[in-house]
Prior knowledge:
Blueprint: E1 2-7, H1 15-18, E2 27-28, E3 31-32, H2 33-43, E4 48-53, H3 57-65, H4 67-71, E5 73-77, E6 83-87, E7 95-100, H5 107-113, H6 115-118, E8 123-127, E9 130-132, H7 136-146, E10 150-155, E11 162-166, E12 173-178, E13 187-188, E14 192-194, H8 212-219, E15 223-227, E16 232-234, H9 238-249
Parallel strand pairs: 1-4, 1-8, 4-7, 10-15
Antiparallel strand pairs: 2-3, 5-6, 8-14, 9-16, 10-13, 10-14, 11-12
Amino acid sequence: xxxxxxxxxxxxxxxxESHLLPKPMIEIGGAPILWHxxxxxxxxxxxxxxxxxxxxxxxxxxxxADYYLHRSDITFDFADxxxxxxxxxxxEPWKVTVVDTGQKTxxxxxxxxxxxxxxxxxFMMTYGDGVGNIDIGALASHHKSSGMAATLTAVQPSGRYxxxxxxxxxxxxxxxxxxxxxxxxxxxxxxxxxxPEVFDxxxxxxxxxxxxxxERMSADDKLGVYRHNGYWQCMDTQRDKxxxxxxxxxxxxxxxxxxx
Length: 260
């Protein structure tokens, strides 16, 4: 299956960096979070990607056009005819299609625009700003056996605020504790598997995939869920970025499953 990654949004909540780069190109450990997502899927054998770009999409195109320059040691020999020597060049087993899906297109519209690239086959889809340690193989198997038009990965994110334990009349605080996962609702974490029929649920560029299409599939009993109890984190804010960066620098990144 091909992997479709939505990478065209403005990233306004992390504007400290997204005013210069599309959010999926903001770096964690010296590499764009988009690269981390692709490395993760590649670990499970999924190596054909369709990147739906929009805002500053040329940055994504230039990254892949000069991938060797970004990921390898280079010698520029000006004394010998301006030769360029690539040392220990990194060769990924990837085929990457970068599609300009429009500056203002919403998530559903971006998916609709890549229909010709996936044809009439099932495909993976996720967002270009979230990482986790989801078992992609188990997700694919779960979807295949479900008979659903779409399967999304659901997570219970840890709360970033502490919880107050109150007495019955709520006039007295009786304790403090960290918010546990079980205190949280399940949310859509991306990492989806979609059948071609999902395109029929999307009207056009202005469609938010997370609203009408998913709601209609749910009403038609065609939306499945794969519950993930492990790690997941969306890089929505600068604080989120710093958390991911710290995990990477401490060699504790749960999504880092590939070998260097």
